[in-house]
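In response to reviewer comment 3 from the previous cycle, which asked for concrete evidence that the modeling workflow produces usable outputs, we include below a single protein chain processed end to end. The sequence was submitted unchanged, and the resulting structure tokens are shown without manual editing.
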Amino acid sequence: MRSVGLISFYRSYKMLQTVLLWFRANYVELFGMVFGIVYIFFSIRQNIWLWPIGLITSIFYIVIFFTSKLYADMSLQIYYLVISIYGWIHWLYGKQKSESGELRVLKTSVKSWMTVFAGTTVLSILIAWILKNYTDSPLPWWDAFLTASSIMATWMLAQKYLENWLVWIVVDAISIGVFAYKELYLTCILFLVYTIMAIKGYFEWKKSL
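The workflow returned the following structure tokens.
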């Protein structure tokens, strides 16, 4: 009986050791995933705390993407730091407020859609050229497209345009494949959750129009 107990203790110890080693190797990605889920949850609820949470999430993912050589995505996180400050201020002091004092959800105008499409196209070409010529990025065009689309989608979120969620659905779904290729499996789970929550976010925001 004593030997059985020792074997059971040893197995438990080895399992704990394996978990601790895994946590040590992946804790940055794990914390980034947790804060990312909180960020998208606050976005759906139109809670202004999404912006400071977004700042923290971006810091984690700057480290993750630099390590994985996804340089455009890393640069995107720096942009997120800046746009989070802008979005925070705009949601606090923007002019188009509802009766409750919150910034209104708006439909994206034709002019704004043209800005989004033009911005995505120009940025994708520019970023892809930089990645192909000055980095060792393994997926320059996909990296560039996702970065450009995310830049425009975050701008739409800061303006509180309803259709930012439609752009995010496309970006998040494609990102799952890219991160699977880079073996960032926790981030794949995060972006699967993002895709589902982006669908929910669209319908939740649509109710408040």
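The chain has a mean pLDDT of 85. We consider this sufficient to address the reviewer's concern, and the full set will be provided in the supplementary archive.
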